[in-house]
Amino acid sequence: MSDETDVPQGDAAPPPYSFRTRAIHVGNEIDPLTGAVVPPIHLASTYRQPGAGEWGEFDYSRSGNPTRTRLQQTLASLESGTGALAFASGMAAIHCVTMLLGKGDHIIAGCDLYGGAYRLLHKICNRSGIEVTLVDMADPAAVEAAITPATRLIWAETIGNPRLSIPDLRAISAIARRHGIWTGVDNTFGTPALIRPLEHGIDIVMHSATKYLGGHSDCLGGTLAVADESLFDSLYYIQNATGAVLDPMSCFLVSRGLKTLQLRVREQSATALEIARWLQQHPRVRTVLYPGLPSHPQHELAKQTLQGGFGAMVTFELDASIEETARVCESTKLFHLAVSLGAVESLIEQPATMSHASYDAEDRARFGITDGLIRLSVGLESFEDLRNDLQQAIG
Ligand SMILES: *Cc1c(COP(=O)(O)O)cnc(C)c1O
Could you tell me one molecular function GO term of this UniProt entry (predicted)? Predict the structure, then answer.
């Protein structure tokens, strides 16, 4: 649970500021024109150039915008990368990664996968002749066994969805390097406050900024960050050519959200752990899937790799039918019945009928997305209020 970068450095060392300091200062340097401590939002779509055929730093806002650049600087710093890109949504960010591939290429993805990523890979990427195999990312041997000569990308989630499985990123990146394959990780549930996949040898880290990075359910966004500059150039080329960039207002909202990311995620994770423990002893609850519980299959790995908490998503299974489970999800008062996650207000949903409805029915059954499953996104309300709300809903 330590954050090694929080250790104060001597005056002589250049400031490797801690995560929470960088979240506030990197990309938010004082505006030289006015001294404003919050940089202005640049809405311009185009920029006057010094001469014909001579280009200034910015020329057109799809290619670059000062507000987006500032956000990307913050993101690159928080992810321990050298470059980052901000997209119109998380899906646009994942799509950009898949566009590194072409006809005949093969992707290995985790079977505990966000519903929208499942749909993108199976119903859109297949149209360009890209094949997908889903495997249990918590089993590195299964990942290696799924590699074919056509495999170009391994795609995992730092904390899977909805079963909250935890892959061993070091093992997966080592396998991928041996085979010359890119690795990409969706760190939406993990957040850079808890884990930074680039530090574990992963090539590309992705976020739905709609969730914890923004943190207030008021904007959509997606991000990619990398450590390798030529990979950054390839991704930037695709983003600029296809155009799914994040608008300046949303860039501002994500930048503002990042300033409190670590505080929110640590606090929400602490409440989530209390809720998971409480659910575990509830007679109507069959199982609780939470990386912070010793009963979680990758609890030891989670303890080693997640810093400062185990995340604020809690999945549990009721001993109940699909209808009874739906009724519980409909009976909470504080937990809003809604997809999405990662914001200050708590949400509840039923994966089988909501977040994972875009899975084929057989894949839902195969990957443990059962009728009695409920997924919680634990917000910043008090534990007692959230517990009482669940108590009255579960009965
Ligand atoms: C929400 C989400 C996405 C997609 O992001 P959007 O911003 O909704 O496009 C991808 N992965 C995970 C884990 C998510 O929760």
Answer: cystathionine gamma-synthase activity
Q: What amino acid positions are annotated as catalytic residues?
A: 62, 114, 186, 211
Distance 355 CA to ligand 1 centre (A): 10
- The token duo for 1 is 């649970």
Residue 355: CB atoms within 10 Å: 21
Identify the burial level of 242 via C-beta atoms within 10 angstroms of its C-beta, where 0-12 means exposed, 13-18 middle and 19 or more buried. middle
Residues in the ligand 1 pocket, defined by CB under 6 Å: 89-91, 114, 116-117, 157, 161, 186, 188-189, 208, 210-211, 220, 222, 341
Tell me how far the alpha carbon of residue 359 lies from the centroid of ligand 1, in angstroms.
Answer: 15
The residue whose CB lies within 8 Å of the most ligand 1 atoms, and thus the one to mutate among 210, 213, 349, is: 210
Q: Is the pTM of this model over 0.85?
A: yes
Cα 225 from Cα 234, distance rounded (Å): 12
* 8 A C-beta contact, residue 196 and residue 205: yes
DSSP character at residue 4: G
Instruction: Kindly indicate whether the domain formed by 19-258 is annotated with CATH number 3.40.640.10.
Output: yes
Sheet order of strands, 83-87 included:
83-87, 222-226, 204-208, 182-186, 151-157, 106-110, 131-135
Say how far apart CA 248 and CA 253 lie, in whole Å: 9
Residue-wise pLDDT tens digits, 281-329: 999 999 999 999 999 999 999 999 999 999 999 999 999 999 999 999 9
**Residue ranges covered by each domain of the chain:** 19-258, 262-394
Q: Which amino acid is at 346?
A: S
Do 19-258 and 262-394 show the same overall fold?
no
CATH class of 262-394: alpha beta
Q: pLDDT band for position 357 (50/70/90)?
A: confident
Poorest-confidence range of 5-19, 20-34, 115-129?
5-19
